């Protein structure tokens, strides 16, 4: 019975998250719509997996596919996220040699994890696979560890930041070449190195997420205190000061656990040297850092209350949050105190599909040919991937072509979703009623209007046909 307590705890946690998230009816936002829609399409057309390079390699889609296979598309984020958390549990248990109750409680309590589950951040999938790889490595199972490292590298291209140092240290100590099975992912990376280098080298700067936009840091700028403080500030925002103090104590008292130390702290340092900056990139380091807190939790058991209090606030917030925005307020700082409430950076968000009559539009769009989507101002209007995902959830399986806005003479930058020919005859355009550029472009095409409907904020949605 004692061995069953761990799986029961994992199932109970995922059930709690599902009970708080799914009834709220929020629609996935950020990267999730495009990734989930692509996953659904892969279930029907798996041979296209070889075409996937960015924003993520192919294996993450495989990990997220099983809810779609079972027809549970609307629950896919929570179910796939729960799978990743189960892998985290197994990996943390291997690292500690016992049930990681303290580390688990802090991991599932932080609103950063709840956000990652609701919107299925691929970094959460990487966290699960990478933590399982570290656990296998700690147990001296090089074949399993190497295989999981290869899967991790093919799940998210940031995987080496968290696994390279532990793998190198283990190899130097054990001199066991079986771990090199991890290099099975290398041919894929070499074959796509140009695309990957461009993707890794471009993003907003660290301080752009902390206050205002600024150029991406490079060279010696990466060593500036303001840049190095970004991920510690994210960690403070995710865990609160009590949680951050726990991690600090854990890193000191648990410093002999060198595998999680290299993965957690080493990963945090290497992330700071990366050209791209996203708070969710820190997720794979979180289980490793929290394993180190077990050293402190053994000595300061009253601090277990930190996790319980935070879990209660996270669950309540995600179950009852009123009228979520469609944009996340990115604000991270070391000087703030917002614990145990959920900080703005991790509050629930949702894409307002009902307000924009997306279901009504999908019901009237044909499914037997591609439809171009020309959607004005994605800060306000749903993006093409929102319509694509909603169509997949309803098993309508539309084929869309995303058109770049604002339209320019000639082709406005057609991009097939998720793959296929960018050719289209029909266009669903959403724009302000008196917006001139869209109308001029449509006039140039000599389109025929088939139907239209009024939308909020003075917008109109129109289905038109090219001659």
What is the number of helical segments per DSSP (H or I, 4+ residues)? Answer: 21
Give the domain tally: 2
Shape: globular
SSE series: HHHHHHHHHHHHHHHHHHHEHEEEHEE
What are the low-pLDDT stretches, counting only 5+ consecutive residues below 50? 203-215
Largest sheet composition: 6 strands, mixed
Averaged pLDDT, please?
A: 85
Percent in strands: 5-15%
Oligomer: single chain
Structural class by sheet pairing and helices: alpha/beta
How many angstroms does the end-to-end distance come to?
70 Å
Which strand order spans the largest sheet, edge to edge or round the barrel?
Answer: 3-2-1-4-6-5
The value of Rg in angstroms is 23 Å
What proportion of the residues is helical, as a percent range? 40-55%
3D structure, described in words:
By secondary structure, the protein is of the alpha/beta class. The protein has 2 domains: 345 residues, no CATH class; 108 residues. The protein is built from 21 helices and 6 strands. Strands 3-2-1-4-6-5 form a 6-stranded mixed beta sheet. β5 and β6 form a beta hairpin.
Gist?
With 467 residues, the chain is α/β, with parallel strands linked by helices.
What key attributes describe this structure?
2 domains, 467 residues, 7% strand, single chain, six-stranded mixed β-sheet, 6 strands, alpha/beta, 21 helices, globular, 52% helix
